[in-house]
Amino acid sequence: MRKAAFVYIILAFTLYSCIKPPTYSIIPHIEFVSVSAPNILNGYRDTITFSFTDGDGDIGIGGSNTDTTDSICCGIQHGDSSCLLSPSFNVFLIDSRDSCIETYASANVQPAGKYKAISGTIQVIVGMYNTKCFGGCPCAFNDSVNYAIILKDMAGHLSNTVHTTPIAVGCN
Q: Residue 120 CA to chain centroid, in angstroms?
């Protein structure tokens, strides 16, 4: 009986030692997953979901920085990307219609276990607005938006940029 228990313990340690940690880059990598509604009415909310991987497990804004005095929407015309430097936000959605950047703060994600590398999904709830509601048929889906998404980790590394599928926004 003791021999069998010893063999099982050795086998368990051997299998455990064979588990390889994920090898993600310390620069976050994101992939677009979905939008909850590809057609939505003006003023309603849509949920955008994307996945991420991060090799050093530092997703979030860090500390207790709750400064929300930064602009929640700024243009990137002529190369102005100062919103991306804000310490208060780490999720950025760039509107294809006017290059406006909507800023969000994700939860601070802490690695669990002995490996720092993490992966997961983030959902962002976005208020959808039709910029053409006053210029056309009040019931038409005559406006469409794609968002470019960027994620920043606590070290300031910016992820790759991914794009949502088109979202048609109709007047109500």
A: 10
Which tokens hold the place of 89?
A: 């936000």
* Per-residue model confidence (pLDDT) at position 69: 44
The pTM (predicted TM-score) of the whole model is 0.79
More confident of the two residues 138 and 40: 40
Query: Following DSSP, what letter does each residue of 100-152 receive, concatenated?
Result: EEEEE-PPPB---SS---EEEEEEEEEE---TTTTTS-TT---EEE-EEEEEB
Are the C-beta atoms of residues 54 and 67 closer than 8 Å to each other?
Answer: no
For the chain, give percent helix, strand, coil, nearest 5: 15, 35, 50
Strands 73-75 and 39-41: unpaired
- 87 vs 156: CA distance, rounded Å: 9
Amino acid code (one letter) for 86? S
d(CA 131, CA 134): 8
Gap between the Cα atoms of 69 and 117, Å rounded = 32
Place of tokens 């709830």: 125
CA end-to-end span of the chain: 74
